[in-house]
Specification:
This protein is α/β, with parallel strands linked by helices. It has 2 domains: about 160 residues, no CATH class; about 150 residues, Rossmann fold. The chain has 10 helices and 14 strands.
Length: about 325
């Protein structure tokens, strides 16, 4: 769920709440900068900033911020002893900014803009007794920034958050396995588009809100969606022929991740046919077959876990 939208909904519904953000992370830490947690009157509602005693302290600060209407900046040093007690990575320091949600038109406009934006810069003052807005939003081009998702300015007066859209995952095939992968990928924070040329399978009612569904063949799909290096493609259709037709076009695309559901034998059969059709060997070599981590997955749900785990590794640059 979009935490910005959830925060806006919470304050409109209840008139209060708080948002905790990892504003800066140094060393080995359990969560990266930009990670958020939404807190209501009774505690954590969405997200996490680390777990254990760290999170308990942040929730306490969030409740205090709701009561006082003032933000707080917490610093947590995750030394070896504390990290061992919490089961966290050690040797790092995190600065966590906790802000009360304001039932204010200008403040809500920033939350709404951040929720709807593909890319942008959210700037939040760390002290709220100054003149001027406490929170602003500036739209940016997707390539307009790089680096950590959040940071504190050098003078410590502002937290700056750089918003980028989550990677898209295109799943060709809306059968049992494709649908399970779609659900797991959406839960992991990917933007999911499911494509199938069978309208009875490419039925939006079979999928949760937020998962896009397209009933189309590969030519129509790729004409509608231009693949980029930030996109992933998972091919899980009903047979070798359909897989080959899709892979023929996707393998040579800019997509950053291409995976094909099936065995090594299937890879050999499909690859041989595509090479004969003129698809460059280099393009085929980057295709992950069998797709997913080798965990012995059998059921659609297990296969989905293995595939999405590999997608997360790709997204985080670990594979």
């Amino acid at each position: 769920m979009n935490v910005w939208q959830a925060a806006a909904d919470l304050v409109r519904r209840s008139g209060s709440g708080a948002l905790a953000t990892v504003a800066r992370a140094r060393g080995s830490t359990p969560v990266p900068a930009g990670t958020k947690m939404l807190v209501g009157a009774e505690g954590r509602l969405l997200g996490s900033v680390g777990g254990g005693c760290v999170e308990a302290e942040v929730i306490g600060a969030a409740l205090d911020a709701q009561a006082s209407g003032r933000p707080a900046l917490l610093t947590q040093h995750l030394n070896a002893d504390l990290a061992g007690d919490l089961g966290l990575s050690c040797g790092g320091t995190v600065d966590i900014f906790v802000e009360p949600l304001l039932a204010d038109k200008a403040y809500l406009a920033v939350l709404d803009a951040a929720a709807a934006a593909d890319a942008g810069l959210v700037r939040t003052a760390t002290e709220w007794n100054q003149t001027g807005p406490v929170k602003t939003f500036e739209p940016l081009a997707r390539a307009g920034f790089s680096g950590a998702a959040a940071t504190l300015t050098r003078d410590g007066r502002f937290m700056e958050e750089r918003l980028q859209p989550a990677p898209r995952v295109f799943i060709f095939g809306a059968g049992h396995v494709g649908a399970a992968i779609a659900r797991a990928a959406a839960a992991a924070g990917f933007r999911v588009i499911v494509i199938d040329d069978r309208s009875e399978y490419a039925d939006a009612s079979r999928f949760a809100d937020g998962i896009a569904v397209l009933a189309a063949d590969v030519d129509t799909a790729l004409a509608r969606y231009a693949l980029t290096t930030g996109d992933a493609v998972v091919i899980a259709t009903r047979g070798h022929r359909n897989d080959a037709l899709i892979l023929e076009q996707v393998a040579i695309s800019p997509a950053g991740y291409v995976g094909l559901l099936g065995s090594r034998r299937k890879k050999a059969v499909v690859t041989k046919g595509l090479k004969a059709a003129g698809v460059p060997a280099k393009s085929l070599q980057r295709v992950r077959v069998p797709v997913g981590l080798p965990i012995g997955a059998v059921t659609p749900e297990e296969i989905a876990v293995s595939v999405v785990a590999e997608l997360i590794g790709w997204r985080r640059g670990e594979s």
